Amino acid sequence: MNNMSKRVSLTAGALLLLTTAVQAEGEINALVWCDHTDPALLEPFEAMYDVKVNVKEYEGTAAGLAILDQSRAGDWDVMVIDTVDVGRAIDRNLLAPLPEGIITDSFYPDLVMADSNGRDGTMYAVTEKFGYNTIAFDSTKVDAADMEDLSFLWSDKYAGRIAIYDYYLPVLGLIGLEQGIATADLNAEAVEGLRDRAYALNANARQVSDVVASQTALATGEVDILIGGGEWVTAVLSAENPALDWTVPSQGALRWSQSIAVLEESGNKDMAAEFVKYIVSPEGQARLATSSCYWGMPANRAAGDVLSDAEKAALRWDNQDDYIANTQLYPTPTAELDLSMQDLWTDMLQQ
Amino acid sequence: MSSIERIERRNAFGFVAPALVWTIAFFVVPFGAMVLLSLAHLEGREVVQAYDLGNYIKIFTDPSLFKGIVVSLEITLTVTVISVLLAWPLAWIIATQVPKRYQRLAIMLAVLPFWTSYVVRSYAWALVLGQNGVLMETLMWIGLLDAPIPIMATRLATVIGFVHFFVMLLTLTIYANLIQLSPNYARAASDLGASGWQTLRLVILPLTLPGIMTGAFLTFVLCIGDYITPQILGGNNELSMPQLIMLQLGRRGDFPMASALSVVLMLLVTLAYFATARWLKMDRV
After folding, report:
1. Are A228 and A331 found together in one domain?
2. What is the ipTM of this complex?
3. What CA–CA distance (Å, rounded) separates A333 from A343?
4. Minimal Cα distance from B123: which residue of A?
5. What is the SS3 assignment for A55?
6. Total domains in the fold of chain B
7. Contact A222/B68, CB-based, under 8 Å?
8. Which of A166, A214, A346 should one mutate to test binding to chain B, selecting the residue with the greatest count of B CBs within 10 A?
9. Which listed residue, of A30, A120, A290, B239, carries a Cα 20 to 30 Å from B147's Cα?
10. Are residues A214 and A288 both part of a single domain?
């Protein structure tokens, strides 16, 4: 190779390295749920910081952790995770401490969940969105008064008109509530005691379906009731189909919440932290609450200044204090109990 | 061995080598890794490498897991038989009753649904078969039904979704076989006194067995390994093997059990291959 060729090669190599560095600086990679893939949520942040947010969608904490296991260090900067599972990620040293001041007084106090999102006084994640796994229904086909009592879900009156949301934790939690068992008390013996009730519920249902299929079934009239549904199913459809409704029955319901965190091995922690700050800002919260994939309550009440009255009505903004008081957190089973619950769920599906 | 034979053998190996390397790198090695993983266990949330058949024993003793095998086989065999029964007459009509110049158009029309996304097609069937879908509305409009009957979220919906897809595939393989048959076979049978039905049953049908079996084998392989159709149309009222595998991967994080189920699935496909191997000669299709 002559000198000229060497110089060209070196220059090209340097340019390539420079380009790669600039590209890495201008990107963050986020492991998220589908509500974070909405361009209406991401684009304002990208424009504000001149950064590209690459998102990968996943479902289920086990799948998310498996993706991290299979990735190289630094591949991911941000992760959205079930609040009750944040501890699993902390145990694996996957999360970085969050900067001070992210959680403000305008957050719902019950949603700060310092025990779940933090460890020994350090916050590793912040709750960004929450909602309820309860009963969603078509108010033109179902007696709304019946939906105030969970036991109606087992009645012949609604046989074959029910879909069950395909997620064992909230639905087994709801079955437990119907049996008078708090989610925190769901131990191995209590879970096994739900078996017959779960089988009976499945026998009364038409289908067990994921988020999209559940929404489709309710919206098309395939079923009239969705167990495990809530505002995350009906709110996004409220404009097109106001008949779709949801309630928290007298026995209570389950409250889901999702958190966002910066990953410990992120190579772009500062920008990742800025993204987290944006997501929990009033504007970010409002956009996340009304994301095209599913709606949910923002953890930061300051989003109320940004949301429209119609959006707040669909989210039942004014009922939140009552709902929070009458709902329980997801069960937090040990690894063994979690597998037992999944076995029960599989057995129920195969009945 | 002469030097010429040695050179020829070396040249032949040279031609085969790229495919061989590809197969070893992307099939043999990953499959070996999967078999090795299938011998491990999930303890708590951690995968612990072991070397025993615990996962395989569980598959055949746990009623829910074993039912996955039964469900998959029942659906796959039903789909294969129905698809063959529908595809053969269709292929025969195209090959023998449609004028030559229109046959290409007929085949194109037959495979037209292939052009749409598989997932979209499954969701389309969900809308057709639903309580308020086109099928029920039509049946009630013409007075055959007073109220909709549940088809969506049943095994029947899964079978319909599969059959729609695989009839097209089988039509192609059987048609390819039929157009190669010399008309002299039918003429000879007729000369020897065979009726039209006897000619069809005793001459034409046996001669199209390679096309039928090739299509049936492909149907078996694709159907038994399919996750999308039972997931969208079956309503999770029973779980097939691919659904059970996805459950292990996506929810339990039980990669060893998912691997063991995948190996069993592969064994079933291998058995299907051996059952149809004598007809699977592509040059006859």
Report:
1. yes
2. 0.84
3. 13
4. A213
5. strand
6. 1
7. no
8. A346
9. B239
10. no
Please tell me whether residue A165 adopts helix, strand or coil conformation.
strand
DSSP readout, B217-260?
HHHHHHHHT--HHHHHHSTTSS--HHHHHHHIIIII--HHHHHH
CA A193/CA A170 separation, integer angstroms: 16
Separation of alpha carbons A64 and A339, rounded Å: 17
Look up the domain containing B160 and give its range: 64-284
Chain A partners of B253 at a C-beta cutoff of 8 Å? 62-63, 65-66
Distance from CA of B24 to the nearest CA of A (A): 22
Structure tokens at A21: 């560095």
Please check whether residues A92 and A201 belong to one and the same domain: no
Total domains, chain A: 2
Same structural domain for residues A23 and A105? yes
The CATH number given to whatever domain includes residue A214 is 3.40.190.10
Please tell me the pTM assigned to this model: 0.83
Instruction: Report yes or no on B20 lying in a domain.
Output: no
Distance CA B45, CA B85 (A): 47
**A293 and A317 both lie in a single domain:** yes
Classify residue B166: in a domain, yes or no. yes
Nearest to B181 by CA among B212, B135, B216, B152: B212
In a domain, B91, yes or no: yes
Of the residues B41, B43, B236, the best mutation for testing chain A's interface (the one with the most A CB atoms within 10 Å of its CB) is: B236
Taking only the tens of pLDDT, chain B with its 285 residues reads: 677 888 888 888 888 899 999 999 999 999 999 999 999 998 877 889 899 999 999 999 999 999 999 999 999 999 999 999 999 999 999 999 999 999 999 998 888 877 888 889 998 998 899 988 999 999 999 999 999 999 999 999 999 999 999 999 999 999 999 999 998 999 999 999 999 999 999 999 999 999 999 999 999 999 999 999 999 999 999 999 999 999 998 888 899 999 999 999 999 999 999 999 888 765 544
- For A91, residues 6+ apart whose C-beta sits below 8 A from its C-beta are none
- List of chain A residues whose C-beta atoms are within 8 Å of the C-beta of residue B251: 60, 62-63, 342
**Whether A220 and B130 lie within 8 Å, measured CB to CB:** yes
- Is A91 an 8 Å CB contact of chain B? no
In Å, how far is B149's CA from the nearest CA of chain A? 11
The dihedral over CA atoms of A69, B35, A349, B123, expressed in degrees to the nearest 10, equals 80
Please indicate, yes or no, if residue B13 is contained in any of the structural domains. Answer: no
Contacts of B123 in chain A (CB under 8 A): 216
Range of the domain at A61: 3-130+257-321
Chain A residues within 8 A of B65 when measuring between CB atoms? 346
Q: Please indicate, yes or no, whether residues A12 and A77 belong to a single structural domain of this protein.
A: yes
A67 and A12 in one domain? yes
Q: Are residues A233 and A290 in the same domain?
A: no
Q: Closest Cα of chain B to A173: distance in Å?
A: 17
- Give which of A218, A338, A350 to mutate to test B binding, by max B Cβ within 10 Å: A350
Q: Which tokens hold the place of A291?
A: 């994301």
